[in-house]
Recover the amino acids of this structure.
Protein backbone atom coordinates (compact mmCIF):
# COMPACT_ATOMS: atom_id res chain seq x y z
CA UNK A 1 0.00 0.00 0.00
CA UNK A 2 1.42 3.36 -1.03
CA UNK A 3 0.43 6.56 0.72
CA UNK A 4 1.38 9.99 -0.56
CA UNK A 5 1.43 12.84 1.95
CA UNK A 6 1.54 16.36 0.54
CA UNK A 7 2.85 18.72 3.22
CA UNK A 8 4.91 15.95 4.85
CA UNK A 9 7.52 18.48 6.04
CA UNK A 10 4.84 20.41 7.94
CA UNK A 11 3.38 19.95 11.40
CA UNK A 12 0.55 17.50 10.67
CA UNK A 13 2.32 15.78 7.76
CA UNK A 14 5.27 14.79 9.94
CA UNK A 15 2.99 13.28 12.59
CA UNK A 16 0.95 11.46 9.95
CA UNK A 17 4.11 10.01 8.39
CA UNK A 18 5.20 8.71 11.82
CA UNK A 19 1.76 7.18 12.40
CA UNK A 20 1.66 5.43 9.02
CA UNK A 21 5.15 4.00 9.58
CA UNK A 22 4.04 2.69 12.98
CA UNK A 23 1.01 1.01 11.41
CA UNK A 24 3.35 -0.94 9.10
CA UNK A 25 2.91 -2.34 5.59
CA UNK A 26 2.61 1.14 4.13
CA UNK A 27 5.15 2.72 1.81
CA UNK A 28 5.15 6.34 2.94
CA UNK A 29 5.91 8.89 0.23
CA UNK A 30 5.91 12.66 0.49
CA UNK A 31 6.78 15.81 -1.39
CA UNK A 32 9.04 18.70 -0.53
CA UNK A 33 10.25 21.85 -2.23
CA UNK A 34 13.94 22.63 -2.53
CA UNK A 35 13.63 25.26 0.19
CA UNK A 36 11.41 23.20 2.50
CA UNK A 37 12.54 23.01 6.13
CA UNK A 38 12.96 19.30 6.70
CA UNK A 39 13.70 19.31 10.48
CA UNK A 40 10.27 17.79 11.24
CA UNK A 41 11.03 14.61 9.28
CA UNK A 42 14.79 14.29 9.88
CA UNK A 43 14.26 11.41 12.32
CA UNK A 44 12.34 9.33 9.75
CA UNK A 45 13.99 10.43 6.51
CA UNK A 46 15.52 7.01 5.85
CA UNK A 47 12.14 5.31 6.08
CA UNK A 48 10.22 7.52 3.66
CA UNK A 49 10.44 8.37 -0.02
CA UNK A 50 10.59 12.05 -0.89
CA UNK A 51 10.05 13.64 -4.29
CA UNK A 52 10.56 17.31 -5.12
CA UNK A 53 7.23 18.87 -6.07
CA UNK A 54 5.50 22.23 -5.86
CA UNK A 55 1.74 21.75 -5.92
CA UNK A 56 1.22 25.05 -7.75
CA UNK A 57 2.98 23.56 -10.77
CA UNK A 58 0.87 21.07 -12.73
CA UNK A 59 3.88 19.49 -14.45
CA UNK A 60 5.49 18.88 -11.09
CA UNK A 61 2.35 17.33 -9.58
CA UNK A 62 1.53 15.15 -12.59
CA UNK A 63 5.08 13.80 -12.67
CA UNK A 64 4.91 12.96 -8.96
CA UNK A 65 1.52 11.25 -9.12
CA UNK A 66 2.50 9.20 -12.18
CA UNK A 67 5.74 8.13 -10.55
CA UNK A 68 4.24 7.10 -7.21
CA UNK A 69 0.76 5.95 -8.25
CA UNK A 70 -0.47 6.20 -4.65
CA UNK A 71 -3.34 4.12 -3.25
CA UNK A 72 -4.16 6.92 -0.81
CA UNK A 73 -3.35 10.61 -0.86
CA UNK A 74 -3.37 12.76 2.27
CA UNK A 75 -3.52 16.27 0.90
CA UNK A 76 -2.17 18.50 3.65
CA UNK A 77 0.06 20.93 1.74
CA UNK A 78 -1.26 24.47 2.04
CA UNK A 79 -0.61 28.06 2.98
CA UNK A 80 -1.98 27.28 6.43
CA UNK A 81 -1.64 30.50 8.45
CA UNK A 82 -4.80 32.62 8.55
CA UNK A 83 -3.15 36.10 9.07
CA UNK A 84 -0.81 35.56 6.10
CA UNK A 85 -3.86 35.10 3.91
CA UNK A 86 -4.65 38.82 4.24
CA UNK A 87 -1.06 39.73 3.33
CA UNK A 88 -0.74 37.19 0.51
CA UNK A 89 -4.27 36.36 -0.64
CA UNK A 90 -3.31 35.40 -4.19
CA UNK A 91 -0.61 33.02 -3.00
CA UNK A 92 -3.08 31.51 -0.51
CA UNK A 93 -5.80 30.92 -3.10
CA UNK A 94 -3.35 29.62 -5.70
CA UNK A 95 -1.59 27.19 -3.40
CA UNK A 96 -4.72 25.92 -1.73
CA UNK A 97 -7.26 25.80 -4.55
CA UNK A 98 -5.18 25.48 -7.74
CA UNK A 99 -2.75 23.16 -5.92
CA UNK A 100 -5.61 20.79 -5.16
CA UNK A 101 -6.98 21.11 -8.70
CA UNK A 102 -3.54 20.01 -9.95
CA UNK A 103 -3.73 16.92 -7.75
CA UNK A 104 -7.22 15.97 -8.98
CA UNK A 105 -6.31 16.49 -12.64
CA UNK A 106 -3.06 14.55 -12.23
CA UNK A 107 -4.93 11.65 -10.67
CA UNK A 108 -7.36 11.63 -13.61
CA UNK A 109 -4.52 11.88 -16.10
CA UNK A 110 -2.70 8.95 -14.41
CA UNK A 111 -5.87 6.84 -14.62
CA UNK A 112 -5.85 5.97 -10.92
CA UNK A 113 -8.54 6.45 -8.30
CA UNK A 114 -7.02 6.69 -4.81
CA UNK A 115 -8.86 7.89 -1.72
CA UNK A 116 -7.89 11.54 -1.34
CA UNK A 117 -8.27 13.00 2.15
CA UNK A 118 -8.66 16.76 1.96
CA UNK A 119 -7.51 18.90 4.89
CA UNK A 120 -10.46 21.28 4.93
CA UNK A 121 -11.03 23.47 7.97
CA UNK A 122 -13.42 24.67 10.66
CA UNK A 123 -12.40 28.17 9.53
CA UNK A 124 -14.88 27.64 6.68
CA UNK A 125 -17.74 28.13 9.15
CA UNK A 126 -16.34 31.59 9.94
CA UNK A 127 -18.99 33.72 11.54
CA UNK A 128 -20.96 31.34 13.72
CA UNK A 129 -24.06 32.56 15.53
CA UNK A 130 -24.57 31.90 19.25
CA UNK A 131 -27.41 29.46 18.64
CA UNK A 132 -25.38 27.47 16.08
CA UNK A 133 -22.99 25.67 18.42
CA UNK A 134 -21.93 22.92 18.50
CA UNK A 135 -21.38 23.32 14.76
CA UNK A 136 -22.68 20.56 12.52
CA UNK A 137 -21.55 19.89 8.94
CA UNK A 138 -24.84 21.39 7.75
CA UNK A 139 -24.10 24.82 9.26
CA UNK A 140 -23.84 27.69 6.74
CA UNK A 141 -20.30 28.57 5.65
CA UNK A 142 -19.56 32.27 6.29
CA UNK A 143 -15.78 32.50 5.75
CA UNK A 144 -14.02 35.52 7.30
CA UNK A 145 -10.54 35.37 5.72
CA UNK A 146 -9.00 34.61 2.32
CA UNK A 147 -7.66 31.43 3.97
CA UNK A 148 -11.18 30.36 4.91
CA UNK A 149 -12.39 31.08 1.37
CA UNK A 150 -9.54 28.96 0.01
CA UNK A 151 -10.63 26.07 2.23
CA UNK A 152 -14.25 26.42 1.09
CA UNK A 153 -12.84 26.21 -2.44
CA UNK A 154 -10.90 23.02 -1.63
CA UNK A 155 -13.93 21.53 0.11
CA UNK A 156 -16.39 22.18 -2.74
CA UNK A 157 -13.86 21.23 -5.41
CA UNK A 158 -13.73 17.89 -3.63
CA UNK A 159 -17.52 17.62 -3.78
CA UNK A 160 -17.65 18.63 -7.45
CA UNK A 161 -14.84 16.29 -8.60
CA UNK A 162 -16.58 13.45 -6.82
CA UNK A 163 -19.92 14.25 -8.49
CA UNK A 164 -18.40 14.88 -11.93
CA UNK A 165 -15.71 12.21 -12.12
CA UNK A 166 -16.11 9.86 -9.16
CA UNK A 167 -12.90 11.10 -7.52
CA UNK A 168 -12.82 9.60 -4.01
CA UNK A 169 -12.45 12.90 -2.18
CA UNK A 170 -12.95 12.68 1.59
CA UNK A 171 -13.64 16.14 2.95
CA UNK A 172 -12.46 16.41 6.56
CA UNK A 173 -13.12 19.73 8.31
CA UNK A 174 -10.54 19.74 11.09
CA UNK A 175 -11.02 22.08 14.02
CA UNK A 176 -7.85 23.41 15.72
CA UNK A 177 -5.17 20.90 16.54
CA UNK A 178 -1.84 21.28 18.22
CA UNK A 179 1.09 19.49 19.84
CA UNK A 180 4.86 19.17 19.44
CA UNK A 181 6.27 20.58 16.16
CA UNK A 182 3.40 23.05 15.76
CA UNK A 183 4.62 26.04 13.71
CA UNK A 184 5.65 28.86 16.04
CA UNK A 185 3.26 31.43 14.54
CA UNK A 186 0.16 29.55 15.74
CA UNK A 187 -1.26 30.59 19.08
CA UNK A 188 -0.52 27.60 21.34
CA UNK A 189 2.99 27.14 19.99
CA UNK A 190 3.75 30.84 20.00
CA UNK A 191 2.74 31.22 23.65
CA UNK A 192 4.63 28.05 24.68
CA UNK A 193 7.76 29.26 22.90
CA UNK A 194 7.56 32.69 24.59
CA UNK A 195 7.22 31.00 28.02
CA UNK A 196 10.20 28.72 27.31
CA UNK A 197 12.28 31.75 26.25
CA UNK A 198 11.32 33.64 29.41
CA UNK A 199 12.25 30.60 31.54
CA UNK A 200 15.73 30.67 30.03
CA UNK A 201 16.08 34.46 30.41
CA UNK A 202 16.21 34.83 26.66
CA UNK A 203 13.32 37.27 26.64
CA UNK A 204 11.88 39.89 29.02
CA UNK A 205 8.93 38.48 31.03
CA UNK A 206 6.27 39.93 28.74
CA UNK A 207 4.00 37.70 26.68
CA UNK A 208 2.66 39.25 23.51
CA UNK A 209 -0.84 38.19 22.58
CA UNK A 210 -3.66 38.88 20.13
CA UNK A 211 -7.37 38.25 20.72
CA UNK A 212 -7.70 36.24 23.94
CA UNK A 213 -11.49 36.12 23.82
CA UNK A 214 -11.77 33.83 20.80
CA UNK A 215 -12.88 30.26 21.53
CA UNK A 216 -11.40 27.25 19.79
CA UNK A 217 -12.04 23.49 19.84
CA UNK A 218 -8.62 21.81 20.24
CA UNK A 219 -7.61 18.23 19.43
CA UNK A 220 -4.13 16.72 19.87
CA UNK A 221 -2.35 16.32 16.52
CA UNK A 222 -1.63 12.67 17.35
CA UNK A 223 -5.38 12.04 17.59
CA UNK A 224 -5.98 14.11 14.46
CA UNK A 225 -3.68 12.03 12.22
CA UNK A 226 -5.40 8.83 13.38
CA UNK A 227 -8.68 10.45 12.35
CA UNK A 228 -7.25 11.29 8.91
CA UNK A 229 -6.17 7.69 8.41
CA UNK A 230 -9.50 6.21 9.51
CA UNK A 231 -11.35 8.71 7.29
CA UNK A 232 -9.77 7.07 4.24
CA UNK A 233 -10.84 3.64 5.48
CA UNK A 234 -14.37 4.32 6.72
CA UNK A 235 -15.78 7.58 5.37
CA UNK A 236 -17.95 7.99 2.29
CA UNK A 237 -16.19 9.60 -0.68
CA UNK A 238 -17.73 12.95 -1.60
CA UNK A 239 -19.11 13.45 1.91
CA UNK A 240 -17.93 15.94 4.55
CA UNK A 241 -17.00 15.36 8.21
CA UNK A 242 -16.13 17.56 11.18
CA UNK A 243 -13.14 16.32 13.19
CA UNK A 244 -12.94 17.90 16.62
CA UNK A 245 -13.03 17.24 20.35
CA UNK A 246 -16.45 18.78 20.97
CA UNK A 247 -15.00 21.07 23.66
CA UNK A 248 -13.99 24.71 23.29
CA UNK A 249 -11.52 26.80 25.27
CA UNK A 250 -10.98 30.57 25.23
CA UNK A 251 -7.47 31.52 24.10
CA UNK A 252 -7.13 33.20 27.53
CA UNK A 253 -7.69 29.82 29.23
CA UNK A 254 -5.13 28.16 26.95
CA UNK A 255 -2.60 30.83 27.96
CA UNK A 256 -3.48 30.32 31.64
CA UNK A 257 -3.04 26.55 31.31
CA UNK A 258 0.39 26.94 29.69
CA UNK A 259 1.45 29.41 32.41
CA UNK A 260 0.28 26.98 35.11
CA UNK A 261 3.01 24.55 33.92
CA UNK A 262 5.71 27.15 34.57
CA UNK A 263 7.08 29.11 37.54
CA UNK A 264 7.71 32.32 35.60
CA UNK A 265 5.83 35.50 36.45
CA UNK A 266 4.83 37.38 33.34
CA UNK A 267 2.90 40.39 32.15
CA UNK A 268 0.54 39.90 29.25
CA UNK A 269 0.55 42.59 26.57
CA UNK A 270 -1.76 42.89 23.63
CA UNK A 271 0.14 43.40 20.36
CA UNK A 272 -2.06 45.26 17.82
CA UNK A 273 -0.20 43.48 14.98
CA UNK A 274 -1.64 40.20 16.25
CA UNK A 275 -5.25 41.34 15.87
CA UNK A 276 -7.02 40.19 12.68
CA UNK A 277 -9.22 42.30 10.36
CA UNK A 278 -12.01 39.83 11.23
CA UNK A 279 -11.47 37.02 13.71
CA UNK A 280 -13.61 33.92 14.07
CA UNK A 281 -15.09 34.27 17.56
CA UNK A 282 -16.17 30.74 18.35
CA UNK A 283 -15.45 27.33 16.86
CA UNK A 284 -17.00 24.51 18.81
CA UNK A 285 -17.66 21.44 16.72
CA UNK A 286 -20.08 18.55 16.73
CA UNK A 287 -18.15 15.36 15.87
CA UNK A 288 -21.12 12.97 16.05
CA UNK A 289 -21.22 12.17 12.32
CA UNK A 290 -17.50 11.30 12.10
CA UNK A 291 -17.36 9.36 15.38
CA UNK A 292 -20.42 7.29 14.46
CA UNK A 293 -19.09 6.41 11.04
CA UNK A 294 -15.50 5.60 12.05
CA UNK A 295 -15.45 4.72 15.76
CA UNK A 296 -12.75 7.38 16.27
CA UNK A 297 -12.66 9.43 19.44
CA UNK A 298 -10.11 11.91 20.75
CA UNK A 299 -7.99 10.39 23.52
CA UNK A 300 -5.28 12.84 24.55
CA UNK A 301 -6.40 15.54 27.04
CA UNK A 302 -5.52 19.15 26.29
CA UNK A 303 -3.35 19.37 29.42
CA UNK A 304 -0.99 16.72 28.04
CA UNK A 305 -1.00 18.29 24.58
CA UNK A 306 0.02 21.69 25.94
CA UNK A 307 2.56 20.24 28.38
CA UNK A 308 4.22 18.27 25.55
CA UNK A 309 4.26 21.39 23.40
CA UNK A 310 5.90 23.44 26.16
CA UNK A 311 8.51 20.69 26.72
CA UNK A 312 9.14 20.65 22.97
CA UNK A 313 10.06 24.34 23.12
CA UNK A 314 12.04 23.93 26.36
CA UNK A 315 14.33 21.55 24.47
CA UNK A 316 14.75 23.97 21.60
CA UNK A 317 15.06 27.59 22.74
O1 LIG B 1 6.51 25.31 2.81
P1 LIG B 1 7.17 23.94 2.73
O2 LIG B 1 7.88 23.70 1.44
O3 LIG B 1 8.02 23.63 3.93
O4 LIG B 1 5.99 22.82 2.74
C1 LIG B 1 4.73 23.06 3.32
C2 LIG B 1 3.67 22.53 2.36
N1 LIG B 1 3.46 23.45 1.23
C3 LIG B 1 3.69 23.09 -0.06
N2 LIG B 1 4.13 21.94 -0.60
C4 LIG B 1 4.27 21.89 -1.94
N3 LIG B 1 3.98 22.94 -2.74
C5 LIG B 1 3.54 24.11 -2.24
N4 LIG B 1 3.27 25.15 -3.05
C6 LIG B 1 3.38 24.23 -0.83
N5 LIG B 1 2.99 25.21 0.01
C7 LIG B 1 3.03 24.73 1.26
O5 LIG B 1 2.50 22.45 3.19
C8 LIG B 1 4.45 22.20 4.54
O6 LIG B 1 5.02 20.92 4.38
C9 LIG B 1 2.90 22.09 4.53
C10 LIG B 1 2.21 23.03 5.49
O7 LIG B 1 2.60 22.72 6.79
P2 LIG B 1 2.11 23.59 8.04
O8 LIG B 1 2.16 25.04 7.66
O9 LIG B 1 2.89 23.13 9.23
O10 LIG B 1 0.57 23.24 8.18
P3 LIG B 1 -0.16 22.12 9.08
O11 LIG B 1 -0.53 22.74 10.37
O12 LIG B 1 0.62 20.88 9.06
O13 LIG B 1 -1.52 21.96 8.27
C11 LIG B 1 -1.81 20.84 7.45
C12 LIG B 1 -3.13 21.09 6.74
C13 LIG B 1 -3.15 22.37 5.89
O14 LIG B 1 -3.89 22.08 4.69
C14 LIG B 1 -3.91 23.35 6.74
O15 LIG B 1 -4.53 24.36 5.97
C15 LIG B 1 -4.93 22.43 7.42
O16 LIG B 1 -4.18 21.23 7.69
O17 LIG B 1 -5.42 22.97 8.61
N1 LIG C 1 -1.53 33.08 15.90
C1 LIG C 1 -1.94 33.77 16.98
N2 LIG C 1 -1.01 34.48 17.73
N3 LIG C 1 -3.23 33.73 17.32
C2 LIG C 1 -3.62 34.40 18.43
C3 LIG C 1 -2.73 35.12 19.23
C4 LIG C 1 -1.35 35.17 18.85
O1 LIG C 1 -0.51 35.80 19.49
N4 LIG C 1 -3.41 35.64 20.28
C5 LIG C 1 -4.67 35.26 20.14
N5 LIG C 1 -4.82 34.51 19.02
C6 LIG C 1 -6.08 33.92 18.53
C7 LIG C 1 -6.40 34.16 17.07
O2 LIG C 1 -6.94 35.47 16.87
C8 LIG C 1 -7.41 33.05 16.82
O3 LIG C 1 -8.67 33.45 17.27
C9 LIG C 1 -6.91 31.90 17.73
O4 LIG C 1 -5.98 32.50 18.64
C10 LIG C 1 -6.22 30.74 17.00
O5 LIG C 1 -5.24 31.26 16.13
P1 LIG C 1 -4.18 30.31 15.38
O6 LIG C 1 -3.47 29.45 16.33
O7 LIG C 1 -3.35 31.22 14.50
O8 LIG C 1 -5.10 29.31 14.52
P2 LIG C 1 -6.37 29.55 13.58
O9 LIG C 1 -7.57 29.16 14.39
O10 LIG C 1 -6.35 30.90 12.96
O11 LIG C 1 -6.14 28.49 12.41
C11 LIG C 1 -5.65 27.18 12.69
O12 LIG C 1 -6.74 26.29 12.83
C12 LIG C 1 -7.52 26.07 11.63
C13 LIG C 1 -8.64 25.09 11.97
O13 LIG C 1 -9.66 25.81 12.60
C14 LIG C 1 -4.73 26.76 11.55
O14 LIG C 1 -4.09 25.54 11.90
C15 LIG C 1 -5.48 26.56 10.24
O15 LIG C 1 -4.58 26.05 9.25
C16 LIG C 1 -6.61 25.57 10.51
O16 LIG C 1 -7.37 25.37 9.33
Amino acid sequence: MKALITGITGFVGSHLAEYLLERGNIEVCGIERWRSKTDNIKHIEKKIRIIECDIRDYVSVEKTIKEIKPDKIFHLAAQSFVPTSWNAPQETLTTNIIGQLNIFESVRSAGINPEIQLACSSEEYGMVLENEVPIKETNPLRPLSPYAVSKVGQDYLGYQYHQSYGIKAIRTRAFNHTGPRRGDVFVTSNFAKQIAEIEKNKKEPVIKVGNLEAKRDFTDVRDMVKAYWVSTEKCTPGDVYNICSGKAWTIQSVLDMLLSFSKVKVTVKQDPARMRPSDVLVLLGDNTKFCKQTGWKPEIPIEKTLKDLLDYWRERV
User: Anything to note?
Assistant: DSSP finds ten helices and 13 strands in the chain.
